[in-house]
Amino acid sequence: MMQRNWNVKKRKDSAGSEFKNNPPSYSESIILQLLASRGIVGNDEVEKFFKFDYDADIGNPFLFSQMEKAVNRIINAKEKNEKIAIFGDYDADGVTASALMFETFSQLGFTRVITYIPDRQIEGYGMNREA
């Protein structure tokens, strides 16, 4: 099996140096470098990143123009005991989203939920009839 090495680019501004006197519990240098590379620096910003506030940080899902239509379709499927098919993607966020959707529908009482993640070598990327 091929071994892969991670090469982490060192930051010139010594990310995390502002935490030297009172480092937070998650002040591992690699994490601070990662956060700093995304513009998250300083104790307040790091604290905010790790202490997510759902009400403040998530937008209104009904800003999506067809959210009401989607919700009504899901309610209709539940009432008719229709099968729910979750077509996922094979990358990390696709697999995670598929699992999350499966768990959500299961918790909501749907009993006919399936997930499908295509084989990228055979079926390629995205939804297609063969999948």
Please report which band the strand proportion falls in: under 5%, 5-15%, 15-25%, 25-35%, 35-45% or over 45%.
5-15%
Spatial order of strands in the largest sheet: 1-2
Structural class: mainly alpha
Largest sheet: 2 strands, parallel
How many individual β-strands? 2
Helical amount among residues, as a percent range? 40-55%
Q: What count of helical segments does DSSP give?
A: 6
Rounded mean pLDDT score: 82
Low-confidence stretches: none
> Number of folding domains?
2
Shape type: flat
Can you write the helix and strand succession as a string? Answer: HHHHEHEH
Cα Rg:
21 Å
Distance between the termini: 30 Å
What is shown here, in short?
It contains six helices and two strands. By secondary structure, the protein is mainly α.
Topology:
Blueprint: H1 29-37, H2 43-50, H3 54-57, H4 67-79, E1 84-87, H5 92-107, E2 113-116, H6 120-123
Description:
A two-stranded parallel ribbon has the order 1-2. It is mainly alpha-helical and 131 residues long. The protein is 41% helix and 6% strand. It has helices at residues 29-37, 43-50, 54-57, 67-79, 92-107, 120-123, and strands spanning 84-87, 113-116. It has two domains: 17-57, no CATH class; 61-123, no CATH class. α5 (92-107) links the parallel β1 and β2.
Key traits:
6% strand, 2 domains, flat, mainly alpha, two-stranded parallel ribbon, 131 residues
